[in-house]
Specification:
The protein is α+β, with helices and mostly antiparallel strands. It contains five helices and 13 strands.
Length: about 250
């Protein structure tokens, strides 16, 4: 598969990604262990906790096998919106994988971004019995979904058809981004947001807080995937979520 970005995507992308990941793991350049999973229902929202002993090792520990980072060659700030090229590469990779993947982009500090160099992340969708990411409840490829039951913050989700092109996905991104900007105007300010993209849908969540204290929520966490290294941290999150989830974004209502 060849796209106009002059990037050739290998036909065995899944296998190549795993081989490269395992080589880095063998050299000790990254850390990984299969996480222990626990699905919890919090006020009607499904959350899966992925417990990993080394999850606190920033930038070296991988929760998934494999995890990819798509970053710009030259420096661009993580506060920038995605351009056509950014989203084109992410979409083509997403479609090239045989196994279901997800792409996230944390735009701005309050979105839970971990570094200032513009980058997207792509990793396998969580295949855990009893868990499904809440944006998947959106039903329309035409109308933007803004009222998913149980989600206390403003969100903008649209489904994507099987034959969606890069241009189609980018146009939908611009539609959701426009609604996100309108929401910030009504709220009195803000610019940061999370993007979550899978083959079936695209979601944007405007953010006003990265999280309380040392607890930081990125796009994956907002979608219900919580990474934790011990039970104490897990219990803190469970206690915080019912009342504090809305404040991470723009509260609905």
């Amino acid at each position: 598969m060849v796209i106009d970005l002059r990037v050739e995507i290998p036909g065995d992308l899944d296998e190549q990604a795993l081989r490269t990941f395992d080589k880095l793991l063998e050299k000790g350049e990254i850390l990984f262990e299969p996480p222990r999973t626990d699905v919890v229902n919090i006020d009607g929202i499904q959350v899966v906790f992925l417990a990993c002993n080394d999850a606190g090792t920033i930038q070296k520990y991988c929760v998934y096998r494999p995890m990819l980072i798509l970053h710009t060659t030259l420096f661009e700030p993580q506060t920038d919106d995605l351009n056509h090229r950014d989203l084109a590469l992410a979409w083509v990779l997403l479609k090239a994988y045989k196994t279901p993947q997800m792409v996230i982009y944390n735009c701005g500090v309050e979105s839970g971004s971990s570094q200032g160099h513009k980058h997207l992340q792509i990793f396998p969708q969580q295949n855990c019995p009893g868990f499904a990411m809440w944006p998947g409840k959106a039903a329309s490829v035409d109308e933007i979904t803004t009222d998913i039951s149980g989600i206390p913050f403003k969100h903008f989700v649209i489904r994507l058809p099987n034959d969606a092109s890069v241009d189609y996905v980018f146009q939908r991104y611009e539609r959701l981004l426009n609604e996100t900007r309108k929401a910030f105007l009504v709220a009195g300010g803000g610019s940061d947001y999370n993007l979550i993209l899978v083959r079936d849908w695209l979601a944007l969540v405007p953010r006003q807080s990265k999280g309380p204290g040392e607890v930081m929520f990125n796009a994956a966490n907002i979608a219900g995937l919580m990474w934790t290294k011990d039970d104490d941290f897990k219990e803190r999150i469970i206690r915080m979520l019912p009342g504090g989830l809305a404040e991470l974004g723009i509260p609905k209502g």
